[in-house]
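[User]
Um, tokens okay?
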Amino acid sequence: MEINGVSFKDPSSGGGSDVASSTLADTFDTFLALLTTQLQNQDPLDPMKSEQFTSQLVQFAGVEQSINTNKKLEQLIELQTSSQLNTAVSYIGRIVEVVADELLLDNGAAKISYGLDHNAETTVITIVDLNGNAVRTINGEIAAGRHEFDWDGRDADGNVLTDGVYGFNVVAVDGDDETVDTVSASLGRVTGVEIVDDALWLNIGEMGVPFDSLFAVREDEPSS
């Protein structure tokens, strides 16, 4: 089930280590029953050596210890995720910069940033819709370093596009026709946090990004 957008596991459903423990217990009981029957009906002239069933008992004990270790690891992961969630909640309402190839057009405005490893001859920013169709192509900055671009939400013909999530990419080429290494990011205001597949995500409106893609936090809108 979900509470405030965060998925929680029903304790009654059990986890992987709980199921493994139950299965091991059943298997161990069966093993002991078979071993007892085998000892009762063994050939007195050729009895089972104690080393044989002792070895099997040791193997069962080792498996049980491994399962208990996994339980502890699961508990530590849950505590770590919970701690990260509490930390991420403080980002709600803040402007963040996240490594991404998506941007959120909100009220006809969106902001991205990109960094060039070295000077380029040309830099082209392409914005695409959810179907992968290019809606706007812009010439970007060519100097090495970090740059920002504010998109007004219009397509190549000047039409105002619908708010929502769009994709973008930045391609820079230097004077030797070699691709310049770039890092692109999206800026937006955090509207919520959630756990997806045991990983922490930030919500920027309709756009969701992994928490570990975050690399800058601002209180107010950054200046261009």
Remarks:
- The first strand starts at residue 2 and ends at 3.
- The radius of gyration is 29 Å.
